[in-house]
Amino acid sequence: MSEWLGKAGKRLFEKHLEQYQPQDPLYEFYTDAKGKTKRRKRVTPPGLSKRDAKILKSVQRRAHYLDKGFSIFGFRFGWAFFIGLIPILGDGANVFLDYLFVVKKAEKADLPPWLLQRMLMNVAVGACVGFVPGIGDVLVTVYKPNSRNAALLEEILRIRGEEYLRLQAGEAVSSQVDLNGKGKGKGVSKRDAEQVKPGA
Known about the structure:
The protein has helices at about 1-20, 50-65, 80-85, 90-105, 115-130, 135-145, 145-180, 190-195, and strands spanning about 25-30, 35-40, 70, 75. The protein is mainly alpha-helical. The strands form two sheets. A two-stranded antiparallel ribbon has the order 1-2. Strands 3-4 form a two-stranded antiparallel sheet. The protein is globular, with a radius of gyration of 22 Å.
């Protein structure tokens, strides 16, 4: 009986743990027609400028290799784990790489200050946990600050792309209304257009 409860508890724990782990920033998983789970590269959100799409792909790739590039017995870890094994210097190098390869690259997408602060907070949490002797590197591997930052970047750029597409559709509708002579459309203010323009 206790063995069955142990297995059920472990399954429940694993199920809930997966909800809190950040997804793989470079790949998404799907089930094919035969019921097998496969992975494919994430699709770039629509409406992004070439610059934003390039930045997003670069951050996703870097975060993947730092956090989830390897898998042993279903446990995903990346280069950050190996670098963190070097006492003191490894943890400092991880903080430097997290900032340089992910946050600094994401900054080029003209992100709002509150989002950059949140990304830096993820790096700081990873740094503080990483300095705990012994178990710190394992906890950083579970927390995956780079994957979290890549997910934040993808979400804000997805919203930016959706707003840009909505703006384009609104401009098309307003110009059609003007051409048909059925009255002037509302249009979009110049300030709103500049705010959601890709690369803005």
